[in-house]
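#lab-general

N.A. 3:47 PM
ok so I finally got the sequence cleaned up, no stray characters, all 283 residues accounted for. can someone with queue access submit it? mine expired

B.Y. 3:52 PM
send it over

N.A. 3:53 PM
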Amino acid sequence: MGNEFSVLMLVYGGDRPAHFDAALRSIAAQTLPPAEIVLVVDGPVPDGTEEVIRKYEGELASSATSFRVIRSGKNLGCGGAKRLGFGACSYPLVAMMDADDLSVPDRFEKQMRYFEEHPEVAAAGGWITEFVSAEDPTDTSRRAGSRRVPETDAEIREYIRKRCPMNHVTVMVRKDRILEAGGYRDDYYQNEDYDLWIRLAAAGGKFGNLACDLVNVRVGEEMYQRRGGLRYFRSEAGLQKMMLRRKMISFPRYLVNVGERLVLQVLMPNRIRGWIFRKFARE
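B.Y. 4:20 PM
back already:
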Protein backbone atom coordinates (compact mmCIF):
# COMPACT_ATOMS: atom_id res chain seq x y z
CA MET A 1 0.00 0.00 0.00
CA GLY A 2 1.54 3.31 -1.12
CA ASN A 3 1.30 6.67 0.55
CA GLU A 4 0.62 8.70 -2.57
CA PHE A 5 -1.86 11.09 -1.02
CA SER A 6 -1.92 14.65 0.26
CA VAL A 7 -3.41 16.02 3.48
CA LEU A 8 -4.96 19.48 3.29
CA MET A 9 -5.19 21.53 6.49
CA LEU A 10 -6.19 25.15 7.12
CA VAL A 11 -5.11 27.25 10.09
CA TYR A 12 -6.27 30.75 10.92
CA GLY A 13 -5.83 33.28 13.72
CA GLY A 14 -8.57 31.83 15.92
CA ASP A 15 -7.02 28.36 16.18
CA ARG A 16 -5.17 27.63 19.42
CA PRO A 17 -1.49 26.79 18.84
CA ALA A 18 -1.54 23.80 21.25
CA HIS A 19 -4.54 22.28 19.45
CA PHE A 20 -2.92 22.95 16.07
CA ASP A 21 0.28 21.24 17.25
CA ALA A 22 -1.69 18.17 18.41
CA ALA A 23 -3.59 18.01 15.12
CA LEU A 24 -0.38 18.05 13.09
CA ARG A 25 1.15 15.42 15.37
CA SER A 26 -1.84 13.14 14.76
CA ILE A 27 -1.05 13.31 11.04
CA ALA A 28 2.73 12.97 11.27
CA ALA A 29 2.44 9.94 13.61
CA GLN A 30 0.09 7.92 11.40
CA THR A 31 0.75 4.23 10.69
CA LEU A 32 0.70 5.34 7.04
CA PRO A 33 1.94 8.95 6.91
CA PRO A 34 1.02 11.08 3.89
CA ALA A 35 3.45 11.89 1.12
CA GLU A 36 2.55 15.54 1.55
CA ILE A 37 0.91 17.93 4.00
CA VAL A 38 -0.38 21.15 2.43
CA LEU A 39 -1.04 23.81 5.07
CA VAL A 40 -2.94 26.97 4.14
CA VAL A 41 -2.30 29.80 6.59
CA ASP A 42 -5.54 31.73 6.15
CA GLY A 43 -4.62 35.30 7.05
CA PRO A 44 -2.50 36.55 9.98
CA VAL A 45 -1.84 34.08 12.81
CA PRO A 46 -0.27 34.57 16.29
CA ASP A 47 3.36 33.93 17.13
CA GLY A 48 2.49 30.64 18.83
CA THR A 49 1.05 29.27 15.59
CA GLU A 50 4.13 30.41 13.66
CA GLU A 51 6.29 28.53 16.19
CA VAL A 52 4.32 25.34 15.54
CA ILE A 53 4.75 25.78 11.78
CA ARG A 54 8.53 26.22 12.15
CA LYS A 55 8.65 23.16 14.42
CA TYR A 56 7.12 20.89 11.79
CA GLU A 57 9.10 22.43 8.96
CA GLY A 58 12.18 21.28 10.89
CA GLU A 59 10.86 17.87 11.97
CA LEU A 60 9.50 16.87 8.57
CA ALA A 61 12.45 18.16 6.55
CA SER A 62 14.22 14.80 6.88
CA SER A 63 11.09 12.61 6.67
CA ALA A 64 9.21 11.02 3.79
CA THR A 65 6.41 13.57 4.25
CA SER A 66 6.88 16.96 2.61
CA PHE A 67 5.41 19.97 4.43
CA ARG A 68 4.23 22.76 2.16
CA VAL A 69 3.01 26.06 3.61
CA ILE A 70 0.83 28.39 1.53
CA ARG A 71 0.11 31.80 2.99
CA SER A 72 -2.83 34.06 2.25
CA GLY A 73 -2.29 37.70 3.16
CA LYS A 74 -5.95 38.05 4.10
CA ASN A 75 -8.55 35.69 5.52
CA LEU A 76 -10.24 33.89 2.63
CA GLY A 77 -12.75 31.90 4.68
CA CYS A 78 -13.12 28.12 4.61
CA GLY A 79 -14.30 27.78 1.02
CA GLY A 80 -11.70 30.09 -0.50
CA ALA A 81 -8.82 28.70 1.58
CA LYS A 82 -9.77 25.11 0.75
CA ARG A 83 -9.96 25.98 -2.93
CA LEU A 84 -6.49 27.52 -2.76
CA GLY A 85 -4.96 24.58 -0.93
CA PHE A 86 -6.78 21.88 -2.88
CA GLY A 87 -5.41 23.17 -6.16
CA ALA A 88 -1.89 23.01 -4.73
CA CYS A 89 -2.11 19.35 -3.65
CA SER A 90 0.22 17.17 -5.73
CA TYR A 91 -1.34 13.73 -5.35
CA PRO A 92 -4.48 12.09 -6.80
CA LEU A 93 -6.00 11.47 -3.35
CA VAL A 94 -6.47 14.31 -0.87
CA ALA A 95 -7.47 13.92 2.80
CA MET A 96 -9.07 16.78 4.75
CA MET A 97 -8.06 17.71 8.29
CA ASP A 98 -8.99 20.52 10.69
CA ALA A 99 -6.39 22.37 12.74
CA ASP A 100 -7.82 21.44 16.14
CA ASP A 101 -8.99 17.83 15.72
CA LEU A 102 -7.14 14.52 16.14
CA SER A 103 -7.04 11.78 13.52
CA VAL A 104 -6.96 8.23 14.89
CA PRO A 105 -3.51 6.63 14.36
CA ASP A 106 -4.51 4.30 11.50
CA ARG A 107 -6.98 6.62 9.78
CA PHE A 108 -5.07 6.94 6.49
CA GLU A 109 -4.11 3.28 6.35
CA LYS A 110 -7.80 2.37 6.54
CA GLN A 111 -8.82 4.95 3.95
CA MET A 112 -6.12 4.04 1.46
CA ARG A 113 -7.12 0.39 1.72
CA TYR A 114 -10.75 1.41 1.16
CA PHE A 115 -9.88 3.31 -2.01
CA GLU A 116 -7.86 0.36 -3.31
CA GLU A 117 -10.91 -1.86 -2.79
CA HIS A 118 -13.41 0.70 -4.16
CA PRO A 119 -11.87 2.36 -7.23
CA GLU A 120 -15.28 3.74 -8.25
CA VAL A 121 -15.62 5.90 -5.11
CA ALA A 122 -14.88 9.62 -5.42
CA ALA A 123 -15.23 10.58 -1.73
CA ALA A 124 -14.95 8.45 1.40
CA GLY A 125 -15.16 9.46 5.04
CA GLY A 126 -16.16 7.88 8.31
CA TRP A 127 -17.49 8.45 11.81
CA ILE A 128 -16.35 11.02 14.34
CA THR A 129 -16.25 11.07 18.13
CA GLU A 130 -16.74 14.50 19.69
CA PHE A 131 -14.93 15.49 22.87
CA VAL A 132 -14.64 18.49 25.16
CA SER A 133 -11.10 19.83 25.28
CA ALA A 134 -9.03 19.28 28.45
CA GLU A 135 -5.81 20.87 29.67
CA ASP A 136 -3.85 18.24 27.75
CA PRO A 137 -4.65 18.97 24.06
CA THR A 138 -4.37 15.27 23.22
CA ASP A 139 -6.82 14.14 25.94
CA THR A 140 -10.04 12.90 24.28
CA SER A 141 -11.54 11.25 27.37
CA ARG A 142 -14.30 13.83 27.92
CA ARG A 143 -16.60 12.35 25.31
CA ALA A 144 -19.50 14.56 24.18
CA GLY A 145 -21.07 12.33 21.52
CA SER A 146 -20.47 10.84 18.11
CA ARG A 147 -21.79 11.26 14.59
CA ARG A 148 -22.30 8.12 12.56
CA VAL A 149 -23.06 8.59 8.90
CA PRO A 150 -24.49 6.16 6.32
CA GLU A 151 -22.04 3.78 4.64
CA THR A 152 -23.12 2.93 1.10
CA ASP A 153 -23.53 5.18 -1.91
CA ALA A 154 -27.28 4.48 -2.04
CA GLU A 155 -27.74 5.31 1.65
CA ILE A 156 -25.65 8.47 1.32
CA ARG A 157 -27.66 9.66 -1.69
CA GLU A 158 -30.86 9.22 0.29
CA TYR A 159 -29.44 10.95 3.36
CA ILE A 160 -28.14 13.95 1.39
CA ARG A 161 -31.78 14.90 0.71
CA LYS A 162 -32.14 15.76 4.42
CA ARG A 163 -28.71 16.50 5.85
CA CYS A 164 -25.03 16.62 4.98
CA PRO A 165 -24.04 12.94 4.63
CA MET A 166 -20.28 13.21 5.25
CA ASN A 167 -18.17 14.24 8.24
CA HIS A 168 -15.94 16.58 6.29
CA VAL A 169 -12.95 16.39 8.63
CA THR A 170 -12.77 12.62 7.93
CA VAL A 171 -13.04 12.78 4.15
CA MET A 172 -10.52 11.62 1.56
CA VAL A 173 -11.34 12.38 -2.07
CA ARG A 174 -10.15 11.77 -5.61
CA LYS A 175 -8.83 15.14 -6.70
CA ASP A 176 -9.85 14.84 -10.35
CA ARG A 177 -13.48 13.99 -9.52
CA ILE A 178 -13.76 16.94 -7.14
CA LEU A 179 -12.36 19.33 -9.71
CA GLU A 180 -14.76 17.96 -12.35
CA ALA A 181 -17.65 18.79 -9.98
CA GLY A 182 -16.41 22.38 -9.64
CA GLY A 183 -14.21 22.07 -6.54
CA TYR A 184 -14.64 23.99 -3.32
CA ARG A 185 -16.64 27.22 -3.48
CA ASP A 186 -17.56 29.90 -0.99
CA ASP A 187 -21.12 30.49 -2.22
CA TYR A 188 -22.84 29.09 0.89
CA TYR A 189 -21.73 30.33 4.31
CA GLN A 190 -20.21 27.53 6.46
CA ASN A 191 -21.54 24.98 3.96
CA GLU A 192 -18.77 24.60 1.39
CA ASP A 193 -18.72 20.84 2.07
CA TYR A 194 -22.48 20.19 1.73
CA ASP A 195 -22.46 22.31 -1.44
CA LEU A 196 -19.64 20.18 -2.87
CA TRP A 197 -21.32 16.85 -2.04
CA ILE A 198 -24.57 17.98 -3.70
CA ARG A 199 -22.71 18.93 -6.88
CA LEU A 200 -20.64 15.74 -6.80
CA ALA A 201 -23.79 13.63 -6.40
CA ALA A 202 -25.45 15.48 -9.30
CA ALA A 203 -22.37 14.77 -11.44
CA GLY A 204 -22.64 11.04 -10.74
CA GLY A 205 -19.84 10.77 -8.18
CA LYS A 206 -19.87 7.74 -5.90
CA PHE A 207 -19.64 8.01 -2.11
CA GLY A 208 -18.72 5.78 0.79
CA ASN A 209 -18.20 5.99 4.56
CA LEU A 210 -16.17 3.63 6.70
CA ALA A 211 -18.14 2.22 9.65
CA CYS A 212 -15.58 3.30 12.24
CA ASP A 213 -14.25 6.42 13.98
CA LEU A 214 -11.58 8.22 11.97
CA VAL A 215 -11.28 11.56 13.78
CA ASN A 216 -11.78 12.90 17.31
CA VAL A 217 -13.40 16.34 17.02
CA ARG A 218 -13.26 19.12 19.63
CA VAL A 219 -16.64 20.64 20.42
CA GLY A 220 -18.02 23.47 22.53
CA GLU A 221 -20.84 26.00 22.63
CA GLU A 222 -19.22 27.99 19.82
CA MET A 223 -19.82 25.04 17.47
CA TYR A 224 -23.58 25.32 18.01
CA GLN A 225 -23.40 29.10 17.59
CA ARG A 226 -21.84 28.58 14.16
CA ARG A 227 -24.78 26.36 13.26
CA GLY A 228 -27.33 29.01 14.03
CA GLY A 229 -28.29 32.52 13.04
CA LEU A 230 -29.95 34.13 10.05
CA ARG A 231 -26.87 34.03 7.83
CA TYR A 232 -26.40 30.31 8.39
CA PHE A 233 -30.10 29.66 7.80
CA ARG A 234 -29.99 31.53 4.49
CA SER A 235 -27.01 29.43 3.46
CA GLU A 236 -28.81 26.18 4.29
CA ALA A 237 -32.03 27.34 2.64
CA GLY A 238 -30.03 28.17 -0.49
CA LEU A 239 -28.67 24.64 -0.62
CA GLN A 240 -32.18 23.21 -0.30
CA LYS A 241 -33.27 25.42 -3.20
CA MET A 242 -30.34 24.15 -5.26
CA MET A 243 -31.38 20.54 -4.62
CA LEU A 244 -34.96 21.40 -5.56
CA ARG A 245 -33.77 23.03 -8.76
CA ARG A 246 -31.66 19.96 -9.60
CA LYS A 247 -34.72 17.73 -8.85
CA MET A 248 -32.85 15.95 -6.07
CA ILE A 249 -35.72 16.69 -3.66
CA SER A 250 -39.45 17.25 -4.08
CA PHE A 251 -41.21 20.50 -3.20
CA PRO A 252 -42.79 18.98 -0.04
CA ARG A 253 -39.33 17.74 1.06
CA TYR A 254 -37.96 21.23 0.40
CA LEU A 255 -40.63 22.80 2.62
CA VAL A 256 -39.94 20.32 5.44
CA ASN A 257 -36.17 20.85 5.24
CA VAL A 258 -36.41 24.64 5.24
CA GLY A 259 -39.03 24.64 8.02
CA GLU A 260 -36.91 22.45 10.28
CA ARG A 261 -33.88 24.67 9.72
CA LEU A 262 -35.86 27.85 10.39
CA VAL A 263 -36.89 26.54 13.81
CA LEU A 264 -33.50 25.09 14.73
CA GLN A 265 -31.21 27.80 13.37
CA VAL A 266 -33.19 31.02 13.78
CA LEU A 267 -35.99 30.63 16.32
CA MET A 268 -34.25 28.38 18.84
CA PRO A 269 -31.83 29.71 21.54
CA ASN A 270 -28.23 28.50 21.29
CA ARG A 271 -28.37 26.43 24.49
CA ILE A 272 -31.46 24.53 23.37
CA ARG A 273 -29.96 24.06 19.91
CA GLY A 274 -26.92 22.46 21.51
CA TRP A 275 -29.14 20.07 23.49
CA ILE A 276 -31.08 19.13 20.33
CA PHE A 277 -27.87 18.38 18.44
CA ARG A 278 -26.50 16.22 21.25
CA LYS A 279 -29.81 14.43 21.83
CA PHE A 280 -31.07 13.77 18.30
CA ALA A 281 -28.19 14.35 15.86
CA ARG A 282 -25.55 12.49 17.90
CA GLU A 283 -25.20 9.23 19.75
